[in-house]
Write a structure and sequence with these properties.
Strand content: 5-15%
Distance between the termini: 67 Å
Largest sheet: 2 strands, parallel
Number of strands: 2
Structural class: mainly alpha
Shape: elongated
């Protein structure tokens, strides 16, 4: 059996590392290109049916508050169903009843 020298072993190891890193770089390039393609398709799909931006939705101030509520809540570009879900999650995470918390406004951050 032929034993290889330390120089030959070093060259084989370096070539192995080079092949692996070359493969990783190629994979990174392919993933980046695919990501850009999908982002362009998504942007194209969402840009087509885009409607003009609606004014912020603000709840009416004249409506009477429910017993145990903490006042009015202003919603800016958020559906009431989404706002209710957010308030329920916050109350659950804090471990407090919803009527003990006061939400002043909810606004979507883009």
């Amino acid at each position: 059996m032929d034993n290889i020298g330390i120089l030959d072993a070093g060259i084989v190891a370096l070539l192995g590392y080079a092949v692996v890193f070359f493969g990783l770089i190629l994979l990174m390039i392919v993933v980046t290109i695919m990501g850009k393609i999908f982002m362009a398709k998504d942007k194209k799909k969402t840009a087509a049916p885009a409607a003009p931006a609606a004014a912020p939705v603000v709840t009416e101030a004249a409506a009477p508050t429910a017993p145990g509520s903490a006042g009015q809540l202003k919603l800016y570009d958020v559906e009431p169903k989404t706002a209710a879900m957010i308030m329920a999650i916050v109350a659950d995470k804090m471990g407090k009843p919803l009527n003990e918390l006061r939400f002043i406004s909810i606004k979507e951050v883009k």
